[in-house]
Design brief:
Bound molecules: manganese (II) ion
Shape: globular
CATH topology: Arginase, Chain A
CATH class: Alpha Beta
Distance between the termini: 30 Å
Number of helices: 9
Strand order of the largest sheet: 1-3-2-4-9-8-5-6-7
């Protein structure tokens, strides 16, 4: 018999701990420096962990039960006053070490500048790496003024990542320049708009892009820039706009991604708890995490 729920409540927070043999791990990367819109994305790893006690480990809609899954918590990197250039090696090395031991690693940013070192951590020479972004933005700004949260994809192209191995889903109108769009097309990036997500379902678009990347790549990295969600449903991201994808679509897509065997590392970027309203941000980030695990549990 289980203890009464009045006395104990087993939650998603109880899945995390020091579990060296776990198939999944989580790394906090509270990188906040060099955000184009200054904010507090550095608070996100702690806020996500703090919201997990509110998440049950059971999904009544599908019968998925996560209670036997364990997640190794690799802790938070010390990045509070570190610019992206100096954060590169600590993030890369930690992702590298975790990916060697796990089937799936979740890197919790931080601003979107965590993505470049995360991808390098997956495979140092970037060969055979596919990159899927769920993001309202291309993140293809020029790098000549330094690394920031607006240019991780541009930096990865310059590092040698093949643009034909990149798919970007959820791009928003009037939130990106023509120049960025043209760079993406010229690089061979697969460009999928927020409208396509709305009309076809983000899960269908993500399924297509995953299949296409998996046909060409050995391993896939997924960048979840949470500003892809409609701002009314996710106010806690500085770049979120009205007209973004729905939270439900985001969750469906997340579960598909978690289930894909070639997805070995994902990041969550641009969640800024200081902008949260009524716990919308923290509960959405926590649901993202359990959806990722629910997908993984189906592998
Ligand atoms: Mn972004």
């Amino acid at each position: 018999m289980h203890a009464s729920e009045c006395k104990s409540w087993f939650s998603a927070a109880d899945l995390l701990g020091d579990h060296p043999e776990a198939r999944v791990s989580v790394i906090g990367a509270p990188l906040g420096e060099r955000s184009l819109t200054p904010g507090r994305c550095d608070l996100a790893p702690k806020a996500l962990r703090a919201a997990l006690p509110r998440m049950s480990t059971y999904d009544l809609e599908t019968g998925v039960d996560l209670s036997d899954l364990r997640v190794h918590d690799a802790g938070d990197l010390m990045l509070k006053i570190v610019p992206p250039s100096d954060a590169f090696e600590p993030i890369r090395a930690t992702v590298d070490a975790e990916v060697a031991r796990r089937e799936l690693v979740a890197l919790i940013g931080g601003n979107n500048a965590v993505t470049r070192p995360g991808v390098h951590g997956l495979r140092r020479d970037l060969k055979g790496v596919g990159l899927l972004t769920l993001d309202a933005h291309f993140d293809l700004r020029d790098t000549d003024c330094g690394l920031n949260n607006g240019n991780p994809i541009q930096a990865l192209l310059e590092d040698g990542l093949d643009g034909r191995h990149i798919a970007q889903v959820g791009l928003a109108p009037f939130a990106n320049t023509r120049r960025a769009h043209e760079k993406a097309k010229a690089a061979g990036i697969s460009v999928r708009t927020a409208r396509e997500c709305r009309e076809q379902g983000a899960d269908a678009v993500v399924a297509e892009e995953l299949a296409s990347l998996a046909a060409r790549c050995d391993v896939i990295y997924v960048d979840f820039d949470i500003d892809v969600i409609d701002r009314s449903q996710f106010p806690a991201a500085p770049g979120a706009r009205p007209g973004g994808i729905s939270a439900e679509d985001f969750f469906e897509a997340t579960r598909l991604i978690g289930a894909h065997p070639k997805v070995r590392c994902v990041d969550l970027a641009e969640y800024d708890p200081s902008l949260d309203i009524g716990d919308l941000g923290s509960l959405t980030a926590a649901r993202w995490f359990v959806e990722l695990l629910a997908g993984f549990a189906a592998r």
